[in-house]
Fold:
Amino acid sequence: MDVNLCVGCGACAEKCPGKFDDGYNANLKQRTAIYVEYPQAVPLKYAINPKVCLKLTKDKCGLCEEICPAKAIDYTQKEERITLDAGSIIFSPGFKPFDPSRFDNYQYTNFANVVTSMEFERILSATGPTMGHVVTFPKLPLNPKKKQDKLLVEKRKDPKKIAWFQCVGSRDINKCDNAYCSSVCCMYAVKEAMIAKEHAGGDLDCSIFFMDMRTPGKEFEKYYENAKEKHGIKFIRSRVHSVTEDAETHDLNIRYVDEKGGIIDDTFDMIVLSVGLEISKETRELAGKLGIELTPSGFCKTSSFEPVTSSRDGIYVSGVFNSPKDIPESVLDANAAASAAGDALSAARNTLTKAVEKIPEINVVGDRPKIGVFICDCGSNIKGVVDCAGVTEYARSLPYVEFADEAMYACSQDAQNKMVEYIKEKNLNRIVVAACTPKTHEPLFQETLTNAGLNKYLFEMTNIRNHNSWVHKNNPDIATQKAKDLVRMAVAKAALSEPLKEEKINVNDTVMVIGGGLAGMTAAKSLASQGYKTHLIEKKDKLGGEAHKLYKTAQGEDVQTHLDQLIREIETNENITVHCNTTLEAVDGFVGNFKSTLKTKDTAFELDYGIAVLATGAKALVPVEYEYGKDPRIITSLDLDKRFKEKDAGLAKLNSAVFIQCVGSRQPDRPYCSRVCCTHSVDNAIELKKRNPEMDVFILYRDIRTYGERELLYKKARELGVIFIRYDREHKPEVKLLNGKVLIALNDHVLNQPVEIEADLLTLATAIIPRRDERLANFFKVPLNDEGFFVEKHAKLGPAEFATSGVFVCGSGHYPKPVNEAITQGRAAASRALTLLAKKDNLFTSGTIASVDVMKCSQCGVCVAICPYSAPRFATEGRFAGKAEINAVLCKGCGLCVASCRSGAIHLRGFDTNQIFSQIFALGEVV
Amino acid sequence: MDTCIQKIREIAFQLLDKKEVERVIGFSNGTIPMATSPITIASKQDTEKLVFNSTCGLNLANYIRQQKGKIAVIAKGCDSRNIVTHIIENQVKRDQIYIIGVPCKGMINKSKIKALFEDEILKFTEDGETLTVESSLKKEKLNKKDYLRDNCRLCQHRNPVIYDVLAGEPVEEQVLDTPYPDVEKIAALDADARWLHFQELTKNCIRCYACRNACPLCYCPTCFVDESGPQWVGKGQDKTDVNTFHFLRAFHCAGRCTDCGACAEACPMDINVRDFTRKLNKDAFDMFGWEAGLDQTKRPPLDAYSPDDPNDFIK
Amino acid sequence: MGNLLEHMGIERDRIHFSWISSAEATKFVDVVKEISNKVRALGPNTKLVKDYN
Amino acid sequence: MKFITIDKKNWAKGIEKSRETYRLFGPVKDKNGSFIRDLENDMLPDMSCNDSVLSAKSVLFPQTEKILFTTLDESQKDHHIMKRVPGDSAKRAVLGIRPYDAKAIQLVKLNFDTDDYRDPYWCDAYEATTFVGVGINKPGPFDFSTAAGTGPFSETGLDVLMADLDNAYLAKVLTDKGGAFMTSCGFDTAADEKESQALFDILRKEAEKNISSRIDTDKLKDKTVLELHEAPFWDDIAFSCINCGTCTFVCPTCWCFDIQDEAKQKSASRFRNWDTCMSPLFTKHATGHNPRDSKTQRVRQRFMHKLKYFLDKYDQGIMCVGCGRCVKSCPVNIDIREVCKIMNSYEKKE
Structure:
């Protein structure tokens, strides 16, 4: 397949006789030998599977070559070897889902209704094998051909009861070697159950069988609570031993022990195995070739302080290969790896760039619209249904249409070249293309306009493929009529389009980082090492923040040594100016052009900068329960760290030590999980055991959330004899000070008996609470969530930036996180900031932004109040002082202000009211 | 009210005398019975022209926009709430206005009084709670309480919510169990009857836009009804256009209206246009717990996005 | 807005507000179908409809 | 001059009879006052009610009037060609019109029916209309018609003037049109001419005596336009004005209109609607410039037009008949009598 010629029309796949399993759909259905990897693939190009293709295997068929209107098929292509010179390598090979076939107890291969979570994920998807409809016998095709399958499919039904089994291939060294926690399965199981329930319309019975519910991510705990409380999803703490199948109905019978020790039999229509994440054999081998050191579980070995740097110089890693993780952490990893790779290469920046030739723009203002209409056949995609010649003829009859032409592929290179010629020859000043979706093709056509000297906003595209020929396949007449309607509307709008200007954004390449903790220092260091002047603002008198209070990381690294080294690096870096004892007093401006007033002690000074990174961190809760503060033996985790740091010899002499988890976390007034405390306590418990193996160490917990390879610590603690006793939110342990003793009473979950423990040391694993800095949030117009953490741009895809352009976030101000994650996010924030800084001279606003008609503006301020990007503000000077004006740099063109303006003073350029109306009226003419 | 007007005049005199403000906006006596007219005075001698009585039914907040220099304004409870709305909506700055608050016992319903007489009223006097009204045919003594405007009868904010000085003792606020009986009465009708009610209501509208122009909220430089590109609404007497004007104007006031009654007061055709706005006021209260003009720091609910918005479409 | 129109005697089902993101094609289809069905069930509207003749 | 006595017992029957020839208009009481309405079958004019809220000008000059129409259907030969809406030349009569409203129509006629230009819509309606007025026995407190050049028993512009005599109407037939209407009603009981005229004179004098409100216009003519235009009092007069235009809508002599096009699907119409000089839109240019941008300019325009420009241009007195409607209806009580007083007595200070 010649990817330069393929236009992704799909005509080949329609006729291709070869079939093989569709890996994207978890092999639940088949795809043709010529295929696209998945519907959203970028670029959208077809490929041939040489193992299945009849032409390549048997030299028969050759249909696709005959059909392809773009002549893109090339059976002679050979595997090529490409040599690249690279300064850094980012190794991000991902994972493979655990294959449960080898588990005999769950009978995944034998039972029709046992599926993996990956399969279930596809079943739930609208583009999946069942188009989102959950049915039993999901592994069989919708219309099977084999006789025995046909019989089975007759029994197919909408399931009423589905169970999820957690930790399949995770936290398991009996049946597999995966001692670690896969980190993501609890959350995805809850999500799948919620969606399944939504699809089924509510009466679906969903049960999740789990060991510990691990939802330590941002907003996860609330989701879990919601699933439980509001959506009635059942959470059963039990590891199910085995599954049997009813031979007749194929329902699945299970037997399990509930929390009270009772044996329960139950029947489900379907069972979903929540499979874990695994590093494949191939990846391990490749890592070996690259000379990267791995952990025993197969993940890349990295340090907490260089969390994306592999053991081999110049190779950086990200994603699950680094450790099991969810989407936002993967994105952060990727950002961080990019910045780490960039740090190493900063000297070589811009050495390989080429400039683009600029074509002068024709001034069309005041000219009568001369519209060129191009109707695309898209091979047979459109033409097979719509009478494209008729539509073209019709287009010629429309007002202001100077020229109309039909093209087999309007997006092909020669069609583009012709378009440029026509524009010049016929003096066209507006272009309408009726083809596929502007989402993928608008930029291409706009570029063509630019090449012909037309402003790219003099372009209008209408979709007569996805919205028309595809959906009205069986009604060609109506489809043709609809195509005409769409073209008429597009022409009506195009006639009113105006050239729009893209303003250049000036970027001051100085960065201000607020917060001198680990995350802030990391961000500053990364930016500085790429050559940007960075100001690091710290409220306290020294850098380091909360990390000063930590003893060691989960991987056993000494925090203070590393911290001291980092501080030294920061202080000696000539690109970094550290401002301790400094507070932020005012912020003005916007992306690329911020100005702040800062105050050091009593001296105020101004700082101009282009980018801000908020790394304000969080702090530990001071507990108000469990008799804290009333006895020196009752301390917090950080207090205990301090004693470790100070090498307190008394610790070895303790007879018993107790940890209480979730002190202030996961409760109604603070519903989130503080993420770090389980590992912290487990680690500290091990430290105590190391100092005195005879010591009785208890951890009183609700769920142990040692996600990822932290699970190994949990395992080790149990091996060392640390005793874990679970409690629930309604029955917290009670701490009493009696006769000089610290006594802790609670109910033992195994024995179901009350127990009382006398502790020489009681450590409270306190919640991490945000600083809830509303003033700062206001300064930069960035939101805080209910708990007081900053709300990032996108929970999954934008975890280190804000919706406000030019402002980034990292560290525990975003959400509680351990050292390695804080550092990753610090790097990620720097990385995101670099994407702006690197475009310094090449950054333009969009043309489709809001603008204010000052004559109509009533200066009521609704726009100012309502804009999520702070783009409108009141003009402070000039003839129209007091009226609203839109900052082109900040405006995202969302139209919120346009809709909210009572006076009708705000217009969205490129989507102006008269354009929209002209479209509606154009449609209305035939009504 | 007599003592109150003395107080107002004194305050106004002092303010002008000490040049603390450039002008004072208040009411003066009209040329016909039951009429008062908004007035602006710049000299302390003119303070004698100021009056305040139960015929001052217009809303002076409508007169304070785009004034130069500092001005003083006399404000009833509702006027003061509209001043608050003006401050929120950037129409005046708090330090540009000096508010002479007047606790209010309600304004009279002029058309209800006129309806008692077959011919024109020749004389109207007010003495505390008693109104004396005379025509060529008869003379009536009326209890003011029985002739209050509907909005005043249902008012729960008679005392100014914001002021620099109060010209009189605060009055007792009414507490109503059912603050929206009028809305409920219409709501109890069936759909066709409701439609007829509004058709009948606007039947005589001449589209003079007195309701809009008397409303302190309607300050857009170009009102949507005057807009010609796009023309949102026809400009003739077509009943659909008339109704569209009324309900859209009301909607623009949603969450902002203080039910000051100036619209109905100004209407030369005696149309109670409040039937439109009242429903929205009730909704704003029921859905958002919101009454306009009570809080200088919060924008009206329709100006703001909130994730816990009670509207179901937001989910 | 819907409440006010309903208060004026216009059937509630004739007006609909929905928050649909560009990614929610299915929701869009569902909502449009739902509204069309509701409006069809109500029959032609006679209120607040301008007679141009 | 012919006088006819109409027993009130026969009134309804006579009116009913006239419907064979005439479409009738007259005052009808509504809950918010009385209005001049098209009297549909069986409806009688309310001859005894207070003055109508709006004047009778709408009978000839409706607030919204469709004047032209066309089709946008390009398959039709005459598409986009504007055609006049077929006129209603059928006879009509306005019953119970106040004498000053009839006079006002004569003032409006100066605008719609000139040597150079004849407004077909207004003029055709005017020619088809018979004005049957009723004298005002007891003028109200706002009536200053005598000072404005008309009066409670003024005959200008009327075809018939009737006097209400409790049990009967005494009708003075002023024109042939009026006579024809009386005949169509079957009212033919002639009254003694001399006695009747005497009775009219007594009633007129009695009524005029009742009018306490007046304005002086004697000095307006001598002042220069510029002097009044630049006088300092306009800001104060205009302060309270909310620019609603009620005064112009209720005014029997205001004649301004605005043209609006409306189209739906393939048909398009052109309307004229009452306009008002109080609206900023009235003078706004397509460029965005507005020569009367401020409220003061607009308020000044209204009074200058009524009390000065008109006077100067036509020499027919002021453009006000003293009905007092604007005084009663103004939401902020701007009183034309007061304004007239200020203008009439204004002396420019040197």
